[in-house]
Amino acid sequence: MAMELTVETIHRETIKPSSPTPPSLKIFKLSLLDQFAPAKRVPIILWYPNDSGPSVDAFAKAKERSQRLKESLSKTLARFYPFAGRILNSSSIECNDEGVYYIEARVNCHLEDIFNQPDGKLLRKLVPTPSESGEEATGPIVLVKVNFFKCGGMAISISVSHKTADVSTGSLFINSLAAMARGSRKVVISEPVSLSSLLPPMDIPSVVYKPLFNPEKFPTRRLVFDASKILMLKAEAASAEVPQPSRVQAVTALIWKCAMDAATSKRSGFRHPSGLNLPVSFRKKVNPPVPENCIGNIIYPCVVQTSDSVPQLQRLVQQLRDAIREFNEKSVKNLQGRYAIPNILESVKACGELSKRENVDFYNCTSWCRSELDEADFGWGKPKWVSTGGYTMPNVFTLMDSSGGKGIEAWVSLSKDEMVFFQRNEQLLRFASVNPSITV
Q1: Tell me, what's the pLDDT at 183?
Q2: Does residue 401 have an active-site annotation?
Q3: Cys-Cys crosslink for 153: which of 82, 111, 206, 281, Cβ 3.0 to 4.6 Å?
């Protein structure tokens, strides 16, 4: 989109919980898995067109909605009190009610200008603060930025520290906030709990997030697989071993294959073995299930490796299916009992070592599908689009729902040299549209 986007900050404030946190809850323990998560905020942008009509003062209406959002945020923080605190050390949060940063900004364009051709560079201007910010480990756990467009539309960007939340926890917080705003009783009432009772923290150093990449050198591309193309892809990815692959399996396998092909092309045909990390949620897989009000990182690394000389789509789908099946049958059991912590330490170590090997093409794929982020109705309807903050970390694929949960939108980040080959891969382009317009 050939336009100069100006985002002017017009108001800043700190939102604190509507009621103080009791002294008995001042320290919230992180779990062992939280300790391994970086203190990096993950931005999510929720997009809401103006539905009030041309006769209504669009800016005044948006400001009114922002005021409702602030009041609801204060009430929601009273329940999610750790999110209003600060990370104290590698194993705990100090629930000191210091609050979250809330920013209002005015954007010099209409929402449809963004929707016509979404641009990651422009989206990055709408997040509360650059993800490279050095105070992520010590500053607010949550940042909120409400962007007002000339048409009266809004883009609500919410960034939550990965140290305290996976996508399920983030969605729980956002949908509880939305329910509070629209006056629904569907709000998490019981106080949040930590996974630390199952996986207590250890005396280990904090994982410090150090930005080692430039988005210009590791461009991100947005791909959309609509429902009809996914049906075609699933048919091509099916085999006797996996006759009915899921849409996430099929799309993940295709992106992984095309990323490996791009890396090979960059090396003039020299292929490396490859690994793919799939963080898998085990909320409902352990017995008894993790409580719904449990916050933090309830995910576990599931690594798939391939050394095939010429990776085939069907084979990759089978390897993904087998890895998830092994996780469900074996790894879940390893998360409980006396050997849980040694098993986690071994898995995290193995994943980390594989990712650092120079002769391995290593990728991470995180799925936000079925996270219900697209259900966040603050009282003015569900979002027309849910997006990332415009980019992801290098060699990361982020998958999100589209087409009412039947399609998939993928955000893929690779090195600039590899992206040249990736984005023109003929097999990829048979199923994916590169950065299509958002239909309102």
Answers
A1: 92
A2: no
A3: 111
Residue 273 CB partners (closer than 8 Å, separation 6+): 305, 306, 307, 359, 360, 361
Q: Counting every residue, how long is the chain?
A: 440
Distance, CA of 396 to CA of 356 (rounded, Å): 15
Q: Cα–Cα distances in Å, from 122 out to 135, 211, 214?
A: 23, 20, 15
Residue 217's pLDDT band (boundaries 50, 70, 90)? confident
Of 34, 162, 361, 374, the active-site residue reads: 162
> Tell me, what amino acid is at 394?
P
11 part of the active site: no
CB 195 within 8 A of CB 294: yes
**Banded pLDDT at 133 (limits 50, 70, 90):** very low
Say if CB 118 and CB 89 are below 8 A apart.
Answer: no
pTM of the model as a whole: 0.94
Query: Rounded distance, CA 106 to CA 154, Å?
Result: 10
Among candidates 96, 191, 210, 101, which has minimal Cα distance to 145?
Answer: 101
Catalytic residue among 97, 226, 377, 417: 377
In sequence order, the 6+-apart residues with CB closer than 8 A to the CB of 221 are 411, 412, 413, 419, 422, 423, 434, 435
Residue written as token pair 């391939």: 306
Beta bridge partners of 164: none
* C-alpha dist (Å) from residue 170 to 43, 137, 371, 376: 10, 18, 9, 11
187: pLDDT strictly greater than 70: no
pLDDT at 210: 54
Q: Determine contact, residues 387/395, Cβ cutoff 8 Å.
A: no
